[in-house]
Amino acid sequence: MPRLPQIRPNVLRMAPYVPGEQPGPGERIIKLNTNENPFPPSPRALAAIRSIDPDILRRYPSPTAELFRATAARVHGVSADMILTGNGSDEILSITVRTFLDPGDTLAYPDPTYSLYPVLAESCGIRVVAVPWEPGWQLPVQTLLASGARAIFFANPNAPTGTAVRPAAVRELALAFAGLLLVDEAYVDFADENCLDLVRELPNVMICRTFSKGYSLAGLRFGYAIAAAPLVAEMTKVKDSYNCDAISILAASAALEDQDYARDTWQAVRAERSRLAAELGQRGFDVVPSQANFLLATCPGGLAADLYRSLKAKGVLVRYFAKPGLADKLRITVGTAAQNDALLAALPG
Ligand SMILES: Cc1ncc(COP(=O)(O)O)c(C=O)c1O
After folding, report:
1. Which of 4, 267, 290, 326 fits a 20 to 30 Å CA distance from 259?
2. Among 90, 185, 256, 296, which residue has the most ligand 1 atoms within 8 Å of its CB, making it the best to mutate?
3. What pLDDT, in 10s, does the model give residues 154-191?
């Protein structure tokens, strides 16, 4: 009888990524736990999906999502060969790790941040150095530089804090760093600033974006990197041949074209973000000022785990991280006005 095949030791050792809970279809829940945009996707994206020609499903899609690259190049004012698409920005992060880091290399990132970074690194035998943020959620530039890392990842705005680093500070880090600096802009659509100009200027900066947050298309699975063309060319060798499907390429292209619609949703989320932060502040929460579509709030009395459970029992799902530095806090996605009102009403009086 064959036995279980041997598993790579670093895979056996590593802890898995723990995604936020995803309730089943039809479950009546107010879902404020995984930072989706609460508004529907662009009508133009939905129309593109509805009018799919069956022949494009019969055939393989463009391996490099040329329709999307042309659209993104136009919208962002870069050349098409600076765009690499992926099955969500998670796949872009995975391709990046596999293109730029060898087993035994070091990946550094400010901590706390997106908990997928160490998982991707450890699955490839890459060492991670988690550098605590400096006070006021400033970039720990010197410690990151001293880490011996070959690549630095950081989310801007950051998750789960919602805080953002000014592009001038990111530029200082990039100028002083010999390796790859990946700026994960998953939440940038809700922020005041972005780092696109740095990609145009510096060959070691890559930005990574997604349709899961700003474009209300988390279920579509589509993200992209913007980086110097030679980096994109090497990453293209590493990715799966047809990593984005024909439907997602069409829908993401239509959604990106519809900037006016997307901007309206970002504006509405930003307005609700301010209102929800103020309301939580009045109820004794200490809320970190956010540039993203969620709030990190320290709970009165530090009883975050209890509050998470009591909200869930009332049908409101938020995110709780049982981790050092986060165990007294909840991360709450900004919903529609009605969803935020329901959250506020479910808080203990
Ligand atoms: C900082 C950050 N980067 C990337 C992602 C992944 O996004 P995607 O859905 O595009 O894979 C997330 C998702 O929560 C995130 O928080």
Report:
1. 290
2. 90
3. 999 999 999 999 999 999 999 999 999 999 999 999 99
Tell me the CATH number at 203. Answer: 3.40.640.10
Residue 143 lies in a domain: yes
The shares of helix, strand and coil residues in the chain, as percent rounded to the nearest 5, are 40, 15, 40
For residue range 299-321, list pLDDT tens digits in order: 998 889 999 999 999 999 999 99
CATH number, domain containing residue 282: 3.90.1150.10
Q: What is the extent of the structural domain holding 77?
A: 43-257
159: three-class secondary structure by DSSP: coil
Domain final residue pick, 257, 285, 317:
257
The count of structural domains within the chain is 2
Taking the centre of ligand 1 as the mean of its atom positions, its distance from the CA of residue 182, in whole angstroms, is: 13
On whether residue 63 sits in a domain, the answer given is yes
pTM of the model: 0.97
CA of 298 to the centre of ligand 1 (A): 23
Mean per-residue pLDDT, 284-313: 95
Q: What is the mean pLDDT of residues 65-88?
A: 98
Burial class (CB in 10 A: 0-12, 13-18, 19+), 310: middle
